[in-house]
Design a protein that fits this description.
Layout lengths: L2 E7 L15 E7 L4 E7 L3 E6 L9 E9 L3 E7 L15 H6 L5 E3 L2 E3 L4 H4 L12 E5 L3 E7 L4 E8 L2 E13 L2 E6 L17 E2 L3 E7 L4 E9 L5
Parallel strand pairs: 2-16
Antiparallel strand pairs: 1-6, 2-3, 3-4, 4-5, 5-6, 7-8, 9-10, 9-16, 10-11, 11-12, 12-13, 14-15, 15-16
Length: about 230
């Protein structure tokens, strides 16, 4: 099997979130209009990179192989003979290209710092340098944004074909590098689909919800920082 070496630098807490027992399947779910995929790690040290859609099951495996991990790193060995798009071995604009070409991602605060694909589409000067920003998740048809304001409030908007289907407001706190959401509406559970609202990760370019389904599987949902004039 022809392989290429992929090294992703991680913090200690990434693969085993918050000291919990590691799940048998861990999915990193990245969804934007310009780049959408799921990176799935299995407990037999295999991985697959698939296409991602919220409206139908994954239909295409982009890459696959095996991985090994140390205390602070995870190393992927991609079977390039079944790599769906050989063009991924050229260029440096997308996360798939980084994965296919053995370049490194860094990890902080329990988050793999993938490339923010919006930065290659928009002028990088219009991105906030702080956590105060709008974070986006969607495929163009369905869109969800979470906006954090300086006064420690937030606003969520979810729309389909431009029509708002859900919105809510609340307050947030940052404690021990964890983002805690406190909805104004009592018993609101909208954020639960992406993980515990009291335990979201964040980094310079992402808010990440961690959803543990059971002892068998868990998913990390990425909301990507958008430009300030979004």
């Amino acid at each position: 099997m022809k392989v290429i070496f992929i090294s992703i630098w991680l913090s200690l807490g990434i693969i085993s979130a918050q000291g919990q027992k590691q799940s048998k399947k861990i999915t990193y779910d990245y969804l934007t209009l310009f780049e959408r995929w799921k990176l799935i790690l299995n407990n037999n040290n295999s991985f697959i990179l698939t296409t991602n859609s919220i409206f139908w099951p994954d239909t295409s495996i982009t890459a696959a192989g095996i991985f090994t991990k140390g205390d602070t790193t995870i190393q992927f060995y991609c079977d390039t003979s079944i790599l769906q798009f050989k063009t991924l071995l050229k260029g440096d604009n997308t996360n798939e290209e980084v994965i296919a070409q053995s370049r490194a991602f860094k990890g902080t605060k329990g988050v793999i710092n993938f490339k923010n694909v919006l930065r290659r589409v928009y002028d990088t000067s219009v991105f906030s340098n702080s956590i105060i920003a709008t974070y986006y998740r969607g495929d163009g048809t369905w869109t969800c944004t979470i906006t954090l304001f300086e006064n420690k409030t937030y606003e969520i908007s979810e729309s389909v074909h431009g029509n708002v289907e859900h919105s809510e407001k609340g307050r947030y706190l940052i404690k021990d590098d964890i983002l805690i959401f406190m909805p104004s509406k009592k018993n609101s559970d909208w954020l639960d689909k992406y993980g515990n609202p009291k335990s979201f990760y964040f980094s310079s370019d992402f808010i990440v919800g961690h959803k543990r389904i059971d002892n068998e599987q868990e998913t990390h949902y990425y909301f990507t920082k958008a430009p300030t004039d979004w």
